[in-house]
Amino acid sequence: MKALLFDVFGTVVDWRGGVAREVATFCARHGITDVDPAAFADAWRARYQPAMEEVRAGRRPFVRLDVLHRENLDATLAAFDIEARRLDSVDLDELNRAWHRLDPWPDAVPGLKRLRQDHIIAPLSNGNVALLLNMAKRAGLPWDAILGAEVVAAYKPDPASYLRTVDLLGLAPEEVCMVAAHNDDLHAARACGLKTAFLPRPTEHGPGQCTDLAADSNWTWIAADLEDLADQLDAA
Amino acid sequence: MKALLFDVFGTVVDWRGGVAREVATFCARHGITDVDPAAFADAWRARYQPAMEEVRAGRRPFVRLDVLHRENLDATLAAFDIEARRLDSVDLDELNRAWHRLDPWPDAVPGLKRLRQDHIIAPLSNGNVALLLNMAKRAGLPWDAILGAEVVAAYKPDPASYLRTVDLLGLAPEEVCMVAAHNDDLHAARACGLKTAFLPRPTEHGPGQCTDLAADSNWTWIAADLEDLADQLDAA
């Protein structure tokens, strides 16, 4: 196994906590007092899969995630009865880049540093290049390359997203392992011939999370977190 | 200025020395005694621009540089009266990956480490992703991302190669600086609105080099090497 590809939102970084933090700051600055920041983050994120599905289904040409996030932000503001037109569009673009400023889970940076010693490590995320690059620079994520949906013009779990990324690496699918906290991502990667590694992120969706609490298949590796995955690969 | 993009072959790594080293090893292993490795490297490289021109001119769809290098290797072997058909294609593929195993100039790794502290740094090379990634992993080049011709499906100096890369970074052209030891690369980058930095590599083509020995225009920065460029940006 030569390369490890990582899901990012949820697996490497805490999107819900980071977006809620930025929404809280934004609301405070604009005198918006009746919004639960975590509920806003959940509502914004709920529009993520439907927006990408327009692209995956071929009803819309590929556009980067920053664009989908911005459209979804407008829709979420409307759903919370916040009049986006009264807000400065520069401020809204800045809020949209909350997704560039997410914090890693505590094991992510030390785990990735260890995994990088013997493997190529790169994100295979639906996030766009600038988003993933700005996030990595801020958080110290030691990626060897910034890969993902924008580079291959296909959103996960479209098989093209995995296969084109493997091809860019000049590797065979079985030389590459997809690492994710989401079983559906791993099912799609395995169907393309990749190895798979699962780790749970039981508070990704907040305290009441009831999905992806455990592996639902016999993935190549099942780890507690990224440091445990490094331990297992060291011992293998 | 937020990002620095680097030409790689010649500017960051010594392609001639590295390819000649690998050609010498290959010839020794196959009992080929009448080939000057540096002359072979020059001949192989001489086919580089004409091969890319087929793509730039639209006569051929984009193909990655590994493919062009492999075709050019066959042609170079023929020009040296070496029968490629008698050689194992696995061995030839391995020789083709000599371009993945080039050594950096002595100032490159320390210079890039310093430049990375305050800027996004990435290659904008005609090399493909796997080539640049394997090179970086072997040589310790601390790129924040692996960008270049393959990611944007355009070979330098096609304006699309610069403009699409700037767009991927989510930046404006004037926020990005192209760094190269080749004046023509910088002329093309400046025409797209990028800032420019020149540094000479007077032995890139060997002891008799007569091109690109000095800046031929008033580039934004003119430096002795990458450490000097870091000094100048620190002082700016």
UniProtKB/TrEMBL annotation, chains A, B:
InterPro entries: 2-HAD, HAD-like_sf, HAD-SF_hydro_IA, HAD_sf, S-2-haloacid_dehalogenase. Keywords: Hydrolase. It comes from the Bacteria. Transmembrane segments: none annotated. Gene3D superfamilies: 1.10.150.750, HAD superfamily/HAD-like. GO terms for molecular function: hydrolase activity, acting on acid halide bonds, in C-halide compounds. PANTHER family: HALOACID DEHALOGENASE, TYPE II (AFU_ORTHOLOGUE AFUA_2G07750)-RELATED, HYDROLASE, HALOACID DELAHOGENASE-RELATED. This is Haloacid dehalogenase. It comes from Pseudoponticoccus marisrubri.
